[in-house]
Amino acid sequence: MTDKENTPVEAAVATETPAVAAVAEAPAATEVAAVSEAPATTADAPVVNKDEEKAKILKQVEFYFSDSNLPVDKFLSELVNKSKDGYVSIAKIASFKRMRDFKDNALIVEALRESKSLLEVSEDGLKVRRKVPVGPIDDYHNRSIYAKGFGEETPSLQLELEQYFGALGDVKQVRMRRKNGSNEFKGSVFVEYATLDEANKVGSSKLQFNGQDLLVMTKNEYCEMKAKQLGLDPNEIKKSQMSKGFGNEKKRPREEDTVEDLKGKVIRLSGITTGEGAGLREIKDAMKEHFRYGYVFWPKETSVIEVQIKDADKDAAKVVADLQAKNFEFNGIKPEITVVSDEDTQKFFDEKK
């Protein structure tokens, strides 16, 4: 939802992550005054625009429950499916990383009640759910465009892109695409619009951003272009992206995961070789016979894979011992299997975020 799969299909589409950065301002330097400071008044406090705050809250939660995110957001989908009526605790939603800046629970509830067509809040104000079932997973794919030519990333670029494409139609989300194996911005984006007509109109337009010409096309045209370059069936590229979410994005980690949760729960397999019929999908199939895996990190063109253990009753040491005892092999090779150190688990966690 970073894909690190080393197959032609996955290599065809680089990952992207919604790069939303909260930039904190440094506190102003202390000034030396000739007279005593006057007590702070309410006028000194920063003014928070309530309507703007509510708009940000609603936009974020509607994204969580959107057609493009909910079907591929494993954690949130599990919460929805566990509930008989589809409701999810607003307190749980408020604990998500991008919601933690919003401290006023009453304001969150008020904002969600203003959702026009997507969300509804329970009478007691404690839960929220979708009003309508999730649409077809390929629908948002057809409503999306590809654009390239944005140069280097800046802290404000995500907001600038949302405003730029928002002026051209009703934007649902903008995904900044990133290189496999890193967080480096590729200079291109996928943009989801509310309607197919909007996507087709923007996708066929000649656009400039900050004076630079953009390469723009519909996402379907992009998939066909990549398929032609790689000699693949366009449907294979589309299926690969749809199975992982909008634009092949990096899978969002479970919100409660911390680096401490992962310590002692990650293994490393070294000496992995690939080839026809021997890619990430095949090694996942081989691993699932022995344990439940979570996030799998396989940097492109390397022979090392790091895997999160999801079994509650198994730690990394136990899984390593089990695989070694069973002479685990893949593609005719017996890889070296070790427990990932706490220091390297921090790196794994940073990549997983």
UniProtKB/TrEMBL annotation:
Predominant location: nucleus
Domain RRM: 143-221
UniProt cross-references to InterPro entries, sorted A to Z: La_dom_prot (IPR045180), La_HTH (IPR006630), Lupus_La (IPR002344), Nucleotide-bd_a/b_plait_sf (IPR012677), RBD_domain_sf (IPR035979), RRM_dom (IPR000504), WH-like_DNA-bd_sf (IPR036388), WH_DNA-bd_sf (IPR036390)
Domain of life, source organism: Eukaryota
SMART domains for this protein: LA, RRM
Subcellular location(s) per record: Nucleus
Record-level Gene Ontology MF annotations: mRNA binding
Recorded GO CC terms: nucleus; ribonucleoprotein complex
Gene3D superfamilies, A to Z: 3.30.70.330, Winged helix-like DNA-binding domain superfamily/Winged helix DNA-binding domain
Span of domain HTH La-type RNA-binding: 47-139
BP GO terms, sorted: RNA processing
Pfam families per the UniProt record, alphabetical: La, RRM_1
Keywords for this protein: Nucleus, RNA-binding
PANTHER family in alphabetical order: ACHILLES, ISOFORM A, LUPUS LA PROTEIN-RELATED
Protein's name according to its UniProt entry: Uncharacterized protein
Organism of this sequence: Linnemannia schmuckeri
